[in-house]
Amino acid sequence: MRFDIVTIFPAMVEDGLRAGVVGRAIDRGVLAARVHDLRSFTTDRHRVVDDVAYGGGPGMVLKPEPILRAIDAVAKEIGAAPRVLLTSPQGTRLTQQVAERLVQSPQLLLLCGRYEGVDERVRSRVDEEISIGDYVLSGGELAALVIVDVVARLIPGVVGDDQSVADDSFSRGLLDFPHYTRPAEIEGGAAGQTGTISDALRVPDVLLSGNHAEIRRWRKRESLSRTLERRPDLLESAALDDEEREILRELIAQQGK
Ligand code: ADE
Fold first, then answer.
1. Residue of the CA atom closest to atom 8 of ligand 1
2. Residues 6+ apart with CB under 8 A from 165
């Protein structure tokens, strides 16, 4: 899969793409990402990418022509019309389900919005607007990096162990269960009071038991109880197996007590 990202802050996006799972996938050639500097598609001496809004008002609007030229340049490079996404707080909210749909496309062009907005005429070339949440960022660069990360994780071979993606919180519509690593016991104590001796913080016994069936059931139970407590809305569309439905019934019955 190939991502093209059009931005006025190419260094910021390139830095973000170099790190972690996405960076390694790019190095290994499992994923391609090209960052395009919007300013290189301007034709004036000052490489201006924005202008005042017609009708007045504060803030600058991204000019249409450099963006349209950038889309045309990517189209030429890939030899096809790119699928164009615009990052915008007015867009479809990014969810795991949306990411699963986006990964079906062999190529995505992400236009990073900026300032007060983007000239409306650009939207004629945009397939979909994507928001990463109900808040306003100063620009779309962080949103584009979030989209690349979420979608890239779904490409086979990007995350080392495919099973870990299938088990991810949200892949099945549930929150994740708690994770522990060694040591099995650490000294407790209130935050900021190092050296305070209080109850030891222990890893739940079941995880040390070596009983894999019990561990699996414990994890299901923890996932379900967390989801019930923190995000009960997710349970409406979660894909539960018979065992999970049974555990959920027990948890709900306990809640009532
Ligand atoms: N640009 C500004 N805010 C945004 C958001 N919440 N999601 C995507 N792009 C944005």
1. 131
2. 153, 154, 159, 171
Burial of residue 14 (number of CB atoms within 10 Å: 0-12, 13-18, 19+): middle
Cα-Cα-Cα-Cα dihedral sign, residues 218, 100, 236, 228: positive
Q: Provide the residue type at 183 as one letter.
A: P
The active-site residue out of 89, 119, 167, 176 is 89
CA of 226 to the centre of ligand 1 (A): 28
Q: How many Cβ atoms from other residues are within 10 Å of residue 237's Cβ?
A: 8
Query: What's this model's pTM, rounded to 2 decimal places?
Result: 0.92
Residues 64, 71: Cα–Cα separation, whole Å: 11
- Ligand 1 atom at shortest distance from the alpha carbon of 135: 6
Residues 6+ apart with CB under 8 A from 14: 35
pLDDT at 137: 96
**What per-residue confidence (pLDDT) applies to 247?**
98
- Residue 55 pLDDT > 70: yes
